[in-house]
Amino acid sequence: MNAPLLRSRLAVRMANLKDADEVSRLGAWIMAHEQGLPFHRPNWLLAIEEATGQRAHCLIAERAGDIAAILPFHLVHSPLFGRALVSSAFAVGGGIVSNSATATQRLAAEICGLAERWSCPTVELRGGSMPGRGWIEKRDSHANFLKPLQADSEAELLAIPRKQRAEVRKGLENGLAVVTGRTDRDLDWHYRVYAESVRNLGTPVYPKGLMAAVLQRFGEDADILTVLHEGQPVASVFSLYHKGIVMPYWGGGVWDARRLRANDVMYYALMDHARNRRCTHFDFGRSKTDSGAYHFKKNWGFEPEPMAYAIHTADGQEPRDINPNSPKYRAQIALWQKLPLPVANYLGPWIAKGLG
């Protein structure tokens, strides 16, 4: 009489990310779930751990042997920024992927228990199913930008609002070359441009090994598009591909990229490239509300979609602050922008790998 009830009880356990069959099962479930993102995939979790040392974990809620919900996360530790459980580290998305409110609540309670046992004052869920009571929810701090790709290159150009379309046309007249690939050369070009770009913004650069690990783990679901001027890289973007969506993730340009409109050409070329890969949508990613990047994406005709984040803190603790726009980092950012590039590239990865 009670056996069917026992079989349907929800069980929660930690996934074994060293088991190839478990990893394959998780990956397939995430790809089939409408809420699944690249940052939920075991490939992302393991690439982050491999490149930064931040330990990867994944909680699974199961009912009668079937997955009901998952919560992938990293235990992020930094001498500068403290400890936190983050879903997912170095990602703009993550959180709980769930088929039921009950499963969501169970995983939320479990990760809070882990945070207490592992001395992590903060738990961060970057999207996903919101756990509700006992969590701080933020729904207006960031927005995402997603829209369908057009049928062809000309239609794509015409779909860009007039002022931004003019910038793209100017860039296309500057004799820029576009190269796409996954080789060591592509990664070298990308990292050279990206490192200079983030130094100019005043933030430490991620380790090159992080991008190399994601490129290797994702295989054909990741590549690099670089814009060259007179044979030299001036803008470059590292993109992820997930269920028919292209996501330009790490991108930037050197100082001369603005004059050349290289970034404008880069994103337009990526739209063409993604269409050729049979993608149907372009995900311009997350930006802080009312920031420069937020308005840049609106200028391309993308409409902002508010993102929901959830934070849980131990009693009496303040959430960790890693927001580069925070007033407390203003002086450090100004100093970082003045560092010689070799110095910034030497120090940056050690700092950035603790940001999560």
Automatic annotation (TrEMBL):
Gene3D superfamilies named among the record's database cross-references: 3.40.630.30
Cleavable signal peptide: none
InterPro entries, A to Z: Acyl_CoA_acyltransferase, BioF2-like_GNAT_dom, PEP-CTERM_FemAB-rel, PG_Glycine_Bridge_Synth
Domain BioF2-like acetyltransferase: 165-298
Pfam families (UniProt xref): Acetyltransf_6
NCBIfam families, A to Z: pepcterm_femAB
Protein name stated in the entry: FemAB family PEP-CTERM system-associated protein
